[in-house]
Amino acid sequence: MDKTTAAVHGPGLMGGLTGLAKNIFGLVVSRVELAALELSEVRNHVLELLVVFSLAVLCAMFALAYGTATIVALAWESMGWKILLLMFAVFIAVTIGLAVKAKAMLKEGKLAFPETMNELKNDRDMLL
Fold first, then answer.
1. CB 27, CB 115: distance < 8 Å
2. What whole-number distance in Å separates Cα of residue 24 and Cα of residue 71?
3. With contact defined as beta carbons under 8 Å apart, do 120 and 28 qualify?
4. What Rg, from alpha-carbon coordinates, does the chain have?
5. In terms of C-beta density within 10 A (0-12 exposed, 13-18 middle, 19 or more buried), how is residue 44 classed?
6. The pTM of the whole model exceeds 0.85
7. How confident is the model at residue 93 (pLDDT cuts 50, 70, 90)?
8. Cα dist. 11→7, 19, 20, 53 in Å?
9. Buried-state track 80-109, b at ≥16 Cβ within 10 A, e below 16
10. For the chain, first and last CA: distance in Å?
């Protein structure tokens, strides 16, 4: 068998494996680049969420302090110590509401990698 016959039949087993390895490597590099791009977007969303949350907490603390002091001062003569218990119940209810809101914000999917996961699933389905 000479070189012209080998060229007609294709590159052979080693050539095919080399081509397959190059394609798989290109696929892996493509997926890593996509994951890196989405990771930078997620990082930006996390930083934005932290800044908004921090400012909200700071403003809420000042509002709660001044509002609570005002309510207690105005209601102390008629309610006495009961106003403190009422304020406690209100703050617990608000805290539960804020925790539920924060959980809902996290479930929106802004901290996930939807495109990367979709592409990896497509790759798995195609290879299997």
1. no
2. 67
3. no
4. 31
5. exposed
6. no
7. very high
8. 7, 10, 12, 60
9. eeebeeebeeeeeeeeeeeeeeeeeeeeee
10. 36
- Two structure tokens written together for 85: 């218990």
Is 72:84 a contact under the CB 8 Å cutoff?
Answer: yes
What pLDDT is attached to residue 59? 92
List, as one string, the DSSP characters of 107-118. Answer: TTSTTS-HHHHH
Whole-number Å distance between alpha carbons of 7 and 9: 6
Question: Which of 5, 111, 79 has its CA nearest to residue 87?
Answer: 79
The CA dihedral of 39, 41, 44, 46, to the nearest 10 degrees, is -60
Could you give the angle at the alpha carbon of 55 between the alpha carbons of 53 and 60, nearest 5°?
Answer: 95
Report the pLDDT averaged over residues 100-127: 77
With a cut of 70, say whether residue 52 has pLDDT above it: yes
Tokens of 96: 């539960």
